[in-house]
């Protein structure tokens, strides 16, 4: 157990609906990352926060995706008007503090868009 | 047993044998590398890391080798056990931007 939690663990939604996922890193994680992972592939970088500031966004993060980390602690990832291609595992990872670059991953949220 | 990473995404070994998982990374500016293990339905789990100023680092039953000349990374697992069965990913990070990029992964299956 890395101490990073994600909710919900599973989400099934109909195409066109909005969904929001939450990630709670451990307190010393000043950097927080979101990734998307499809079956058989490695995680793909989506976006990254340093404290509350969103410093980088991947081109994979279309305008239907938005992420926030309002107080530099937990983070949310929202997908608007979901499409079937959004079906994937969404992972968050925290890093920073005494462990440097080592990223601690949460268990992920598996999204299925029907 | 040995994999060639992206070109052979599965590796099957006998319990007790040594395993070698290979990875070719892309960014010559990457200065930090991590191997992750991912079991089904779970997030990636840190195994071992290495900085670009090193060419070898050992952990418990695992060794990572880095060859910067050919941008190649390998993970050696000694005396492979059934609990080692998982998908293994290498990841590269450049301290310039803190982005971490993953390879496609290799599935390791350990036969009893």
Q: What is the residue-mean pLDDT of chain B, rounded to a whole number?
A: 88
Evaluate the radius of gyration of chain A: 13 Å
Strand content of chain B: over 45%
What is the share of helical residues of chain B?
Answer: under 10%
Instruction: Report the portion of residues of chain A in β strands.
Output: over 45%
Specify the biggest β-sheet of chain A: 7 strands, mixed
Number of strands of chain A: 11
The N- to C-terminal Cα distance of chain B equals: 14 Å
Tally the helices of chain A. Answer: 0
Spans where pLDDT lies below 50 across 5 or more residues of chain B: 3-8
What does this molecule look like?
The complex is a heterodimer of chains A (114) and B (112). Chain A is mainly β. Helices cover 0% and strands 49% of the residues of chain A. In chain A, the strands form two sheets. In chain A, strands 2, 4, 5, 6, 9, 10 and 11 form a seven-stranded mixed sheet that branches. In chain A, strands 1-3-8-7 form a four-stranded antiparallel sheet, with no helix packed on it. The radius of gyration of chain A is 13 Å and the shape is globular. Chain B is built from no helices and ten strands. Chain B has strands at residues 10-14, 19-24, 32-38, 45-51, 56-58, 62-67, 72-77, 86-93, 100-102, 106-111. In chain B, strands 1, 3, 4, 8, 9 and 10 form a six-stranded mixed sheet that branches. Chain B has a four-stranded antiparallel sheet with strand order 2-7-6-5, with no helix packed on it. Chain B is globular, with a radius of gyration of 13 Å. The chains are: A mainly beta (114), B mainly beta (112). Chains A and B meet through strand 5 and strand 10 of A and strand 3, strand 4, strand 8 and strand 9 of B.
């Amino acid at each position: 157990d890395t101490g990073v939690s994600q909710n919900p663990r599973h989400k099934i939604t109909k195409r066109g609906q909005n969904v929001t996922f939450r990630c709670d890193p451990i307190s010393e994680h000043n950097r927080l990352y979101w990734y998307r992972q499809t079956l058989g592939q490695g995680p793909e970088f989506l976006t990254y926060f340093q404290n509350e500031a969103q410093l980088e966004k991947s081109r994979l993060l279309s305008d239907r995706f938005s992420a926030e980390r309002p107080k530099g602690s937990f983070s949310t990832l929202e997908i608007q008007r979901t499409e079937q291609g959004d079906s994937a595992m969404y992972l968050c990872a925290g890093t920073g503090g005494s462990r440097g670059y080592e990223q601690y991953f949460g268990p992920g949220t598996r999204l299925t868009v029907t | 047993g040995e994999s060639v990473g992206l070109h052979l995404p599965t590796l099957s070994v006998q319990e007790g044998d040594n395993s070698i998982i290979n990875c070719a990374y892309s960014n010559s500016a990457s200065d930090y590398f991590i191997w992750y293990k991912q079991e089904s339905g779970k997030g990636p789990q840190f195994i071992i890391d290495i900085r670009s100023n090193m060419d070898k680092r050992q952990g418990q039953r695992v060794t990572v080798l880095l060859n910067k000349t050919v941008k190649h990374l390998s993970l050696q697992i000694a005396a492979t056990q059934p609990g080692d069965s998982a998908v293994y990913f290498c990841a590269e990070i450049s301290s310039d931007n803190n982005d971490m990029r993953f390879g496609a992964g290799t599935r390791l299956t350990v036969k009893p």
